């Protein structure tokens, strides 16, 4: 555990002139998502790794499962090496174990083993030679990829090499020198040499390998190396002989395709189902209720998927109860929340970067990976995981090539009672293990027999238990697991099944229901069975790709079995049997409860009552008598009355009704305050005027909401001393320049999101906070979305875009692929506005505390933790309902980990997500929050009625619309928002008085003032264990300063080259002289060059800047990252040398010229001169580079 400088002082032999080596491999880690420890120090036995393996859990599980089919001619007692992956290692350590195992026990040469584990994006690359493609295809049959952003360096003493992941998400630059030295690093400028000594400057491309053979003393190029490996065995012949496809099985099968019979609709076409229609269609089939369908499921999710081949959009976030609190028998899928990439690795853009995505998977028995042969190809290749009704019949009856299929029923007799669930799970596990031993190649788990007398075990429980049982029995690699289920239908359901080991899924009930809807005239007659299947599976493919991409995973083969979920509210017994290794931090429902709910669903479907109407519990939209929602009509009406009329009576009613909803829906509702024996008089408590300064409004962009609504929030927050947030849509200069102090429309918080809309140097310079939006509560891992019909001329101008064109931000910030990159953007923004507080917005998920501590180490001064239930102007329902965790878990974890690392005093922590009342605020403070964000509540105060039409531009109260006629209906006023905030602050003061607390700061982190709610009438809530949340951080590390922001982050801005630059250029900035010429040397430690100079220009002249060529700077050397970021008009920089990543990021009118050193004699057009992601988010200006630019050049430019 050393910094680079300490290494030389500790290992003194490194300083000796006699110490000599022909190769060196060094890795300096930024320890973010693990605590530093000796065993994690790099290099490991064979590799050093800069990146993340996102699929780690699946890779490790499958490596364990392979123990049942592996044997080696080179190692007698192979079992002595098990488990191959030692427990409790980091992702790099696990990768190292498997790489070493393949090389030592499989006698693969090192480059081939690396190629097998980290393949290129071969599936969609039409330019790839056939031999190489066939090698990768064969390797995919032998092993799933280890997927994630990675620069992998490796050596065995003879070879030393590096490979970049398939997406090229890490920087890798190398020089070849004339004196036969090669230097590769993630930056240029790390090795000093005369420019005349450089023979080549290049970079590693995505998926490519660089190899040096130190015996032959030569570099082996990627093309030569991989073709040699590809041709080393007859992979193409093996594939032709052994690979099985569905076409082949269909041809060999006796199953006849269903004829596309003409369908006549009864009367006219219908847009959606009414409850009356539903009754008629489903007449006698009550399975629809048994499998938990509702009218919302059909109208809001399935019909759009079948009609448009896409998931439906929704808006306003998720305010329904967590599954562990719901009394409406949620399916087990609802207990799982998707995890997503933030900070330590990026999500992927699954549509713009489609070339790296693949849903193709080999399924069926896997052979011994240690002995390459044709047998590895003897698997069934599925292009995607959704199986049609016909193909399922083909697979069930298949005997082709000696394969056979075992069908296992996952239902049990009604008479067995709820105890039947666990018995059935054990039976299914035993039958599956026996089938694997008996030589079956495929197992079909089926709930088709569910009906009046048979109760289905949830397919998710049956699958999870079977998958893990087969892994433990070392039988999993001998069989493919296929599901025939009536239960799964949504994208989230299918993703959870894939994540827990399914190889293929036939959601038979969806297809049967679609046929009935067609006959009833709800779906067009032209939609034949084939078209229904294709449309649904295409929508599902898009949905699965999006969910995989949220976690930064490109291939379904790696996502399968990777368990990238957190369970909220499942007991340890359920996790251990069905979902081993999945985090479930608050305990929760047991098998007994799950069985009881399965029985209740069965009883509701098949009780003697004539079930005329399909239930609609209102999971998405509030319904009388249905699921509770935080935003119910009574609370909305009370809040609006309170705010408009300044009525404390109405506010008290709002508080009561909201607290009831919060008790029904949220984790915080399961807590209550511990009243003090020594309450204080309210007159002694901090005044409301101070408390409201801790409030901020949420990041709602001008675009998602109307200008009137956006400005009303800004004016209100400026009047009370809080902060409003621009959101990711920029802000017009007329709102932040020359404002009337009594009607100040300037948003104090300016957001910098992945689309970089409207981010100019003037925008940055005129802010109090600069907030980097890493994720959004309603849809973490996805970008913001503004439909084209909401993009008016005004909005387009603010965003530097084109009217009428939809604006979708990419899921990743293209300049943040790692924690080091985020630290760089934090530094860049601090340089672009030294007076702003730099904030990073994260979303709650397991591990967010460790990410937040990495963000604090990266010098952020403010961290927002958003809950999963935050609002949105437009998002798919999968994102709104199924991704992210409650902020209660995130705030508690973040506060605890920051205190543990003694970082809490450096950052201010903000909570947001459906925060409404003083109760919510005080709970958040007691768990560790300093500040509080409000979005939905202020919108309600301004008139929002929760129509959830934001994404349609039809908001009837003029808030979330750009329609000029509807905007006239906006009736919100700043005073209404101010009234609400002060009533809220007074409620908080009341709670503080009863808790015996005078100063708000004294609330923060006082978990001893919380306890579990005692009068809880919800039996499921009583099973939760909130002990983890209620741990007092100061008991873990006593004596630590926990006053957020009391210690300043040290950016070392006093050491910047810009200071000298500003001093020299000051006469030009002050208008005392027309221009100036400056000559300087630069090295790669000088980052964000000219950004602070540009800040001073922008503060004085705005985006107009200075006249062309006012400040001319000539440089020599290798420039550091973010060279000329956000550079103003009038500044002209010429660099003789080269530069690293992010040159000209956010360029705002300046001019950049970069050319190679004059003494270098290499061919400039074949040499790399600038790094990745140049000119990202640039809005104006010019750039001239003589040479090659690396990946993602000029993405997301506007202007």
From TrEMBL:
Pathway: Nitrogen metabolism; Amino-acid biosynthesis; Energy metabolism; nitrogen metabolism. Keywords: 3Fe-4S, Amino-acid biosynthesis, Flavoprotein, FMN, Glutamate biosynthesis, Glutamine amidotransferase, Iron, Iron-sulfur, Metal-binding, Oxidoreductase. Residues 1-215 form the Glutamine amidotransferase type-2 domain. It holds the Pfam family GATase_2. Its cofactor is FMN; [3Fe-4S] cluster. Residues 722-741 are annotated as: Disordered. Signal peptide: none annotated. One of its GO terms (biological process) is glutamate biosynthetic process. One of its GO terms (molecular function) is 3 iron, 4 sulfur cluster binding. Belongs to the glutamate synthase family. This is Glutamine amidotransferase type-2 domain-containing protein.
């Amino acid at each position: 555990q050393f910094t680079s400088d300490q290494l030389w002082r500790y290992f003194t032999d490194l300083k000796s002139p006699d110490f000599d080596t022909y190769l060196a491999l060094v890795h300096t880690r930024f320890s973010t998502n693990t605590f530093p420890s000796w065993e994690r120090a790099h290099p490991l036995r064979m590799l050093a790794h800069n990146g993340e393996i996102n699929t780690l859990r699946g890779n490790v599980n499958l490596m364990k499962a392979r123990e049942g089919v592996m044997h080696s001619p080179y190692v007698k007692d192979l079992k002595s090496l098990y488990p191959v992956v030692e427990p409790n290692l980091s992702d790099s350590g696990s990768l190292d174990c498997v790489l070493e195992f393949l090389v030592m026990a499989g006698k693969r040469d090192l480059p081939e083993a690396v190629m097998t584990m980290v393949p290129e994006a071969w599936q969609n690359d039409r330019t790839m030679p056939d031999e190489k493609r066939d090698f990768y295809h064969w390797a995919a049959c032998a092993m799933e990829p280890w997927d994630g952003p990675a620069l992998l360096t490796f050596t065995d003493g003879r070879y030393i090499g590096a490979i970049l992941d398939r997406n090229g998400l890490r920087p890798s630059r190398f020089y070849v020198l004339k004196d036969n030295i090669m230097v590769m690093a993630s930056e240029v400028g790390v090795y000093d040499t005369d420019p005349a000594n450089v023979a080549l400057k290049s970079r590693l491309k995505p998926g490519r390998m660089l190899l040096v053979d130190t015996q032959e003393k030569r570099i082996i190029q990627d093309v030569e190396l991989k073709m040699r490996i590809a041709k080393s065995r007859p992979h193409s012949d093996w594939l032709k002989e052994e690979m099985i496809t569905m076409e082949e099985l269909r041809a060999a099968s006796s199953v006849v395709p269903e004829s596309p019979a003409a369908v006549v609709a009864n009367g006219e076409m219908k847009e959606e189902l009414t409850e009356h229609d539903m009754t008629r269609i489903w007449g006698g089939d009550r399975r629809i209720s048994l499998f938990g369908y509702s009218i919302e499921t059909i109208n809001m999710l399935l019909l759009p998927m079948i009609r448009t081949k896409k998931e439906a959009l929704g808006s306003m976030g998720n305010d329904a109860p967590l599954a562990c609190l719901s009394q409406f028998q949620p399916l087990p899928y609802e207990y799982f929340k998707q995890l997503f990439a933030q900070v330590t690795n990026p999500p992927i853009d699954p549509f713009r970067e489609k070339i790296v995505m693949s849903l193709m998977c080999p399924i069926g028995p896997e052979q011994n990976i240690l002995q390459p042969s044709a047998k590895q190809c003897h698997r069934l290749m599925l292009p995607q995981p959704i199986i049609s009704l016909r193909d399922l019949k083909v697979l069930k009856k298949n005997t082709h090539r000696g394969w056979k299929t075992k069908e296992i029923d996952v239902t049990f007799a009604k008479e067995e009672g709820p105890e039947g669930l666990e018995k059935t799970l054990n039976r299914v596990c035993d039958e599956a293990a026996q089938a694997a031993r008996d030589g079956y190649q495929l197992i079909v788990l089926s709930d088709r027999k569910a009906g009046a007398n048979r109760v289905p075990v949830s397919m998710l429980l049956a699958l999870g238990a079977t998958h893990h049982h087969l892994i433990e029995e070392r039988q999993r690699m001998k069989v493919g697991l296929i599901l025939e289920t009536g239960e799964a239908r949504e994208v989230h359901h299918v993703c959870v099944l894939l994540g827990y080991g399914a190889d293929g899924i036939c959601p038979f009930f969806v297809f049967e229901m679609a046929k009935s809807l067609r006959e009833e005239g709800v779906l067009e007659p032209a939609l034949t069975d084939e078209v229904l299947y294709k449309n649904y599976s295409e929508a599902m493919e898009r949905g699965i790709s999006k969910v995989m991409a949220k976690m930064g995973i490109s291939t379904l083969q790696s996502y399968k079995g990777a368990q990238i979920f957190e369970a909220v509210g499942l007991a340890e017994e359920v996790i251990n049997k069905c979902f081993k290794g999945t985090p479930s931090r608050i305990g929760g429902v047991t098998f007994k409860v799950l069985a009881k709910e399965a029985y209740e669903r069965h009883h509701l479907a098949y009780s003697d009552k004539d079930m005329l109407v399909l239930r609609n519990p209102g999971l998405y939209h509030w319904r009388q008598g249905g699921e509770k929602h935080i935003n119910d009509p009574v609370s909305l009406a009370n809040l609006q009355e309170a705010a408009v009329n300044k009525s404390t009576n109405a506010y008290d009613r709002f508080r009561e009704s909201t607290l009831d909803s919060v008790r029904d829906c949220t984790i915080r509702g399961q807590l209550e305050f511990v009243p003090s024996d020594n309450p204080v008089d309210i007159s002694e408590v901090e005044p409301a005027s101070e408390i409201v300064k801790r409030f901020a409004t949420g990041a709602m962009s001008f675009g998602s909401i109307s200008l009137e609504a956006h400005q009303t929030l800004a004016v209100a927050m400026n009047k009370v001393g809080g902060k409003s947030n621009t959101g990711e849509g920029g802000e017009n200069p007329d709102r932040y320049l020359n404002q009337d102090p009594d009607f100040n429309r300037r948003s104090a918080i300016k957001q910098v999101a992945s689309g970089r809309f409207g981010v100019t140097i003037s925008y940055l310079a005129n802010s109090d906070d600069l907030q980097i939006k890493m994720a959004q509560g309603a849809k973490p891992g996805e970008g913001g979305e503004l439909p084209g019909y909401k993009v008016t001329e005004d909005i387009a101008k603010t965003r530097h875009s084109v009217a009428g064109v939809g604006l979708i931000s990419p899921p990743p910030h293209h300049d943040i692929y790692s924690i080091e990159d985020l630290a760089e953007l934090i530094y860049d923004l601090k340089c672009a506005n030294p007076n702003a507080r730099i904030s990073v917005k994260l979303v709650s998920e397991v591990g967010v505390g460790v990410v937040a501590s990495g963000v604090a180490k990266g010098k952020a001064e403010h961290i927002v933790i958003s809950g999963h239930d935050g609002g949105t102007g437009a998002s798919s329902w999968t994102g709104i309902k199924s991704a992210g965790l409650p902020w209660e878990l995130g705030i508690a974890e973040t506060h605890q980990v920051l205190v543990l690392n003694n970082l809490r005093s450096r950052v201010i922590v903000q909570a947001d997500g459906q925060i409404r009342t003083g109760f919510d605020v005080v709970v958040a403070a007691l768990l560790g929050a300093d500040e509080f964000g409000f979005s939905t509540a202020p919108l309600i105060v301004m008139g929002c009625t929760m129509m959830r039409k934001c994404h349609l531009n039809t908001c009837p109260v003029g808030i979330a619309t750009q329609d000029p006629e509807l905007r006239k209906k906006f009736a919100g006023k700043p005073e209404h928002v101010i009234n609400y905030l002060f009533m809220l602050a007074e409620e908080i003061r009341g709670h503080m008085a009863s808790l015996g607390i005078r100063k708000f700061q004294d609330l923060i982190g006082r978990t001893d003032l919380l306890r579990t709610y005692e009068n809880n009438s919800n039996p499921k809530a009583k099973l939760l264990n909130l002990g983890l949340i209620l741990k007092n951080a100061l008991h873990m590390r006593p004596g630590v300063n926990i006053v957020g922001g009391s210690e300043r982050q040290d950016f070392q801005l006093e050491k910047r080259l810009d200071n000298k630059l500003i001093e020299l250029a000051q006469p030009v900035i002050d208008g005392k002289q027309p221009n100036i010429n400056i000559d300087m040397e630069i090295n790669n430690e000088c980052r964000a060059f000219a950004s602070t100079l540009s800040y001073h220009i922008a503060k004085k002249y705005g985006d107009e800047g200075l006249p062309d060529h006012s400040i001319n700077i000539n440089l020599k050397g290798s420039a550091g990252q973010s060279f000329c970021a956000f550079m103003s008009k009038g500044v002209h920089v010429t660099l003789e040398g080269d530069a690293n990543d992010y040159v000209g990021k956010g360029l705002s009118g300046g001019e950049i010229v970069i050319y190679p050193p004059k003494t270098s004699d290499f061919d400039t057009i074949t040499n790399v001169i600038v790094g990745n992601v140049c000119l990202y988010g640039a809005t104006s200006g010019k750039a001239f580079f003589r040479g090659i630019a690396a990946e993602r050049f000029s993405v997301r430019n506007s202007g």
